[in-house]
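#lab-general

N.A. 3:47 PM
ok so I finally got the sequence cleaned up, no stray characters, all 304 residues accounted for. can someone with queue access submit it? mine expired

B.Y. 3:52 PM
send it over

N.A. 3:53 PM
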Amino acid sequence: MADEMMSTTKVVPVIMPKWRAYYDLTKPRVVALLVLTAVVGMSLSVPGGLPWQLFIPAMLGIGLLSSAAAAINHIVDEKIDAIMGRTHNRPLPEGRVSTNHAIVFAGSLALLGFVVLMVLVNPLTAYLTLAGLVGYSFVYTLYLKRATPQNITIGGLAGAIPPLLGWTAMTNEVHPNALLLVLLIFTWTPPHFWALAIHRKDDYAKVNIPMLPVTHGVSFTKTQILLYTVLLFVVGLLPYLVGMSNWLYLIGAVTLNLMFFAYAWKLKFNADENTAMDTFKFSIIHLLLLFVILLLDHYLLPIG
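B.Y. 4:20 PM
back already:
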C-alpha cells in the first residue's frame, strides 16, 4: 500500500510569484546595505536631524539606481550564472524572468531613480549615482571582472560611493570626510570578496573568471586578505583621528577590525573548509555594524 501511494504521489513544484523574481533581480540585501551607508553619509554631513524633503527622495533615488545596477549585473552575467553553483538559481538562469523583460525593468528603475535625484535632490548626486551604476554594471561586471584578477580592487570603487552620494544629497558638495567614508568601504571590499572567491574558486575557474584565487592561488589570496585587514584597521582609525567621530566609534572600529583580522589570520594559518565562508559572512556583519556605530556615535556624541 505504501508503495502504491508513493507511485501515485506527484511532486508539485513550488511556483514563486512573479514579483519575487523581479525583487530578486535587485539584490535587495546588497542594496539595503548600500542604502544604509548612504544614510550614514547623509547623517554625518549635517548637524541634527535630516530634512525629510531631501532624505526620502535621496534614499529612493539611490535605492532605485542601485537596484538597477544589480539587475544589469544579472543580465550581463546570465550565462556564467547558469553554470556557477552559487548563482544558477537566479531569476534569469531559471527562466523566471526573460532577458528582455529584465532589460526593460533595469532601464525603468535607472531612469526613475535618475529623475528623482535630478528633480528632487540635486544634479551632482544624480550624476554621481549614475556614474556608480555605469562603474559597477559595465566597467566592473562587463570588463574588469573578465579582464584582470585585480577586478574587485579597481571595480570596488563603484560599490564604495554610496556614503558620498548621501553626503552630496544633503550638501550638494564633495567633502573630504565623505571621501574618507568611501575609502573605508573601498579598503573593506577586497578582503570581503576574496574570502568568497576562495570558497567559490572552482566555480570561477569553471567560467574563466580570473579571480585572484584562480590566477594567483589560494595561499597568495589569503596573504592579501590578511594584509588588507591590516590596512583596513589603519583606515578605520581615520574618522576618529580627523575629528569626524568620537570615542564610541573608535572603540567599535578597533573591536570590529581586530575581529576581522582574527578571521583573516585563521584563514591564512589555521583554516578549515568553512573558514573562508565564515570570513565572508563576518565581513558583511563588520561593515553593517561599523556604519551603525558611526551613526550612533554621530547622534549620541555629537562633535563640537
